[in-house]
Amino acid sequence: MAAERLVVIGGDAAGMSAASQARRRRGSDDLDIVVFERGRATSYSACGIPYWIGGAVGSEAELIARTPEQHRANDLDVRMRTEVVDIDLSARTVTARSLEDGKDYTQPYDSLMYATGSVPMRPKAEGFDAEGVYGVQVLDDGADLIRELDSGRVERVVVVGGGYIGLELAEACKIRGLDVTVVDLSRTPVGTFDPDIGQFIAEAVENLGITMVLGEAATSVETDDDGRAVAVHIQGGRRLPAELVILGLGVRPNVALAKKAGIPLGSSGGIAVDNRMRTQVEGVWSAGDCVESRHRLSGQRMVVALGTHANKQGRVAGINLGGGYATFPGVIGTAVTKVCDLEVARTGLSEQEADSAGYCFVTASVDSTTKAGYFPGAKPIRVKLIAEKRTGTLLGAQIAGREGAAKRIDTLATAIWNGMGVDEVLGLDLSYAPPFSPVWDPVLIAARKAFEAVEADVRADARAG
Amino acid sequence: MAAERLVVIGGDAAGMSAASQARRRRGSDDLDIVVFERGRATSYSACGIPYWIGGAVGSEAELIARTPEQHRANDLDVRMRTEVVDIDLSARTVTARSLEDGKDYTQPYDSLMYATGSVPMRPKAEGFDAEGVYGVQVLDDGADLIRELDSGRVERVVVVGGGYIGLELAEACKIRGLDVTVVDLSRTPVGTFDPDIGQFIAEAVENLGITMVLGEAATSVETDDDGRAVAVHIQGGRRLPAELVILGLGVRPNVALAKKAGIPLGSSGGIAVDNRMRTQVEGVWSAGDCVESRHRLSGQRMVVALGTHANKQGRVAGINLGGGYATFPGVIGTAVTKVCDLEVARTGLSEQEADSAGYCFVTASVDSTTKAGYFPGAKPIRVKLIAEKRTGTLLGAQIAGREGAAKRIDTLATAIWNGMGVDEVLGLDLSYAPPFSPVWDPVLIAARKAFEAVEADVRADARAG
Q1: What's the pTM?
Q2: Are residues A229 and A245 in the same domain?
Q3: How far is B99 from chain A (nearest CA, A)?
Q4: What is the spatial distance between Cα A463 and Cα A454, in angstroms, rounded to a whole number?
């Protein structure tokens, strides 16, 4: 009997995790696996690109976890610089195009894994597709940007959008000695944080010597006669000269091919999948930045482009493709980033998200230290909690602080995941020794204060009633 | 109506937390609060003493969170240098003795809070009560030890017992330039860790230039004609010369006074309390190092002397004494310490504890990095998990690594607290960005490996069946 055929579109986190897991469970006599990758690298860390640009990471090679050759040694037929340009769901074939010679060929499949990732959001306004406007998503984008920066032609950079990637790239450019401005429509950068925490981010960015233009939209990119970007125009008429414009508006799922083929999308615009990572088309699977996930608190479907989810989802798809059983349990919006020496992290719902999801809640913020206050190297940490009124269920948490602050978000993420109330969080047996935390860990102090806020609210209601 | 009278014995973490919480809820017209403290300080960090000795903390004052004067400003009648020498449960009085003038007086109470803490374990063998043999538990012990070290008379130190405090004190003495030897009966130090993790601790201690004598007991302390310690003798006849001997065998609950009065102890030797911190005697409460707590996994009662529990339990007692309702939910054995730059942490059950508690389990250990492997400053981390066979329930976790490793134990503690299986842990939405973790956080990699171990065990059983 001929081996079954699995075709994987996309050779980064989700695609290669799926391929590798499927191979672990089924040998090449049983399952033939072909992977198409448009770029020059497989299994690389897209999240590491800003650090490569900024110089903290020395070379592209360090960002690559596994090369095509390593995957091939594992019996995966990896075809590089090959783009899938068409999927025929009824014929169960894909059309692959070699980017080397431009030739197309047809590849049949029994199962298809769609793992095309995401593309940077690009405003439809004038000039945003000009030369000198960069979105950074795949490894080749990073190489292109570094080439541009190395050319010596760039002195001024405008980053449009102050999300995670925008700020990481702004810092990288600043480290390279450039004049950097970040433009963001919100009043505080990284809109997934509440403004009180976002305020810390704004200060950290400004302390780096980066100019922030907040509460204003970039309206167009001005180009010279050669069609190259020379300035960004913003609302109200200001003009920011720049030899380089970087898109930092976030990403959207790369679903054009799926849409054309008729693979159904969800309400969020990502590919709709069930918890085993099956799309709504028999035999077609998907994972990574291009799919939508279920938020466990709001119930909403959303696209979260993050390497950690891509790896997990790819693993789940691969186990299922390999004949096993695995599910992806959804997300709760955990994220972390660093701006200079400021660490910020979040999990669960922000105030705005909690409000949209229909929750009534209280908040509590506390300032403490990462180690015992008297211990050398103790750094400031602020923990903010959002708890449901009456039940006290922890809905969200945000942290801002210095070294050693942000990773505490994982404790709170685990608490939210389990539906813990703030009174229960307060009882948690967390580790304590002076080099690691005050005798009340900041997480516990915050839980105590949130508990008091829940209690006070119930009392106020009782009095009012 | 006269105010009710609360008498608190012991003015550190548990006692002062209880007094402060009770005061927050009941004014002095309603509740009169008298606190007796034997020493010279209230509300200090006993856990910080080794760092004061080693010089990382500059002065005693930095270890004091709140002075007697600050407590008095809060309407607490704090009586320093006053030891309670007797409790009459039927008369509801205590006998207090001023350590200044030696005079005794009787103090009546309606409610009694017993918060006497712990005392260092001291072998009954010859010489362990000699001059020059130090146990370090209260702040005054630290001051005494520093005086001794400052005298210049000490060159060689033997620490008997390689538990947390023993090692912290050994390191502090080494930092002061002394010749330090640690003697411990176990094959690896800090017996609450499994030997494979304890091995890392032994290496870190030895790298500091501290001599470890493992698997051998100290049998006696040799004294000179003045009765001062001059050497420690160990099994097999070896003699370790030392001008100073430090007890590092851990602590036992300070229950002599309670026992004499007839306050019942539990099976572990600590005072038996319910989850509201009530003893078995009406009107008598207790909290902190002197009580026993329930281990949530093994169900066993045990004494865990740790400032974080003392504070929480004191708070719970104080809320209840203040007319509120609060409970202490028990412990799961979380602990963390640092030896030079090695960080080690544990939570839940060790292999030996899991075995004693009757669990059948598998283990999984993984080596990873604290940040993305390519990110500057990424440090090694080993995570070991213990999971119940068949159910996959996470029973215990241990971590050893360098900077940024140990605090991850809190995520695992929260997972254990909630009874999560390793497959569920694997699904957790933990924070990821290259400066904070690899794309698979070490906690998740360990969960994945533990899951595979559980799965393999079930398969092996099925084949055998």
Answers
A1: 0.96
A2: yes
A3: 29
A4: 14
Residue at B465 is within a domain:
no
Based on the fold, state whether residues A244 and A358 are members of the same structural domain.
no
B226 with B135, same domain: the answer is yes
Distance, in Å, from the CA atom of B401 to the CA atom of B380, rounded to the nearest integer, reads: 5
DSSP E strand boundaries for A99-210: 104-108, 111-114, 118-120, 133-135, 156-160, 179-184
| C-alpha distance from B90 to closest chain A C-alpha (Å) | 34
The per-residue pLDDT for range A259-290, each reduced to its tens digit, is: 999 999 999 999 999 999 999 999 999 999 99
The first and second tokens of residue A48, run together, are 């590491």
End position of a domain, from candidates A249, A280, A307:
A249
Q: List pLDDT tens digits, range A329-341.
A: 999 999 999 999 9
- Chain B hits for A45, CB-CB cut-off 8 Å, are 372, 374, 434, 439
Strand partners, B44: B64
Using the CB atoms, write b or e for A376-387: b if 16+ within 10 Å. Answer: eebeebbbbbbb
A347 touching chain B per CB within 8 A: yes
When CB atoms are compared, the residue of A48, A306, A347 closest to B372 is A48
Q: Please say whether the beta carbons of A206 and A181 come within 8 A.
A: no
**A261 and A309 both lie in a single domain:** yes
Look at residue A22 and tell me whether its pLDDT is greater than 80.
Answer: yes
Give the best residue of B410, B436, B441, B445 to mutate against chain A (max A CB count within 10 A): B410
Tell me which chain A residue has its CA closest to the CA of residue B439.
A308
Torsion on CA atoms A122, A128, A131, A133, rounded to nearest 10: -60
Final residue before a domain boundary, out of A204, A219, A249: A249
Q: pLDDT tier at B272 (50, 70, 90 boundaries)?
A: very high
Q: Answer yes or no: do B126 and B218 share one domain.
A: yes
Number of domains observed in the structure of chain A? 3
DSSP result, A205-251: HHHTT-EEEES--EEEEEE-TTSBEEEEEEGGG-EEE-SEEEE-S-E
Shared domain for A192 and A257, answered yes or no, is no
- CATH code, A231: 3.50.50.60
For the record, the structure tokens of A430 come out as 């967390």
Q: Which pLDDT does position A1 carry in this prediction?
A: 66
Chain A interface mutation, best of B201, B431, B458, highest count of A Cβ atoms under 10 Å:
B431
Q: Which domain holds residue A166?
A: 122-249
- Distance in angstroms (rounded) separating the CA atoms of residues A118 and A289: 5
> Are A63 and A139 spatial neighbours (Cβ–Cβ below 8 Å)?
yes
pLDDT tens digits for A393-450? 999 999 999 999 999 999 999 999 999 999 999 999 999 999 999 999 999 999 999 9
Give catalytic residue positions of B: 47
B53 to chain A, any CB pair closer than 8 A? The answer is: no
- CA-based nearest residue in chain B for residue A328: B427
B164 lies in some domain: yes
What 3-state DSSP class applies to A403?
A: coil
Categorise residue A10: left if φ over 0, alpha if ψ from -120 to 50, beta otherwise.
left
Residue type, B244: L
Q: How many helices (H) and strands (E) does chain A have?
A: 12, 25
Residue A329 lies in a domain: no
Q: How far is CA A189 from CA A182, A194, A197, A201, B66, in A?
A: 9, 10, 10, 7, 39
Q: Tell me whether B441 touches chain A (CB under 8 Å).
A: yes
Residue B218 in any domain: the answer is yes
Q: Which two tokens stand for residue B104?
A: 């005794």
Instruction: Report the C-alpha gap between A240 and A403 in whole angstroms.
Output: 34
Tell me: do A126 and A86 sit in the same domain: no
Collapsing DSSP states into helix, strand and coil, what is residue B411?
helix
- A429 in reach of chain B (CB within 8 A): yes
A292 with A317, same domain? yes
**In terms of Cα–Cα distance, which of A438, A440, A453 is closest to A385?**
A453
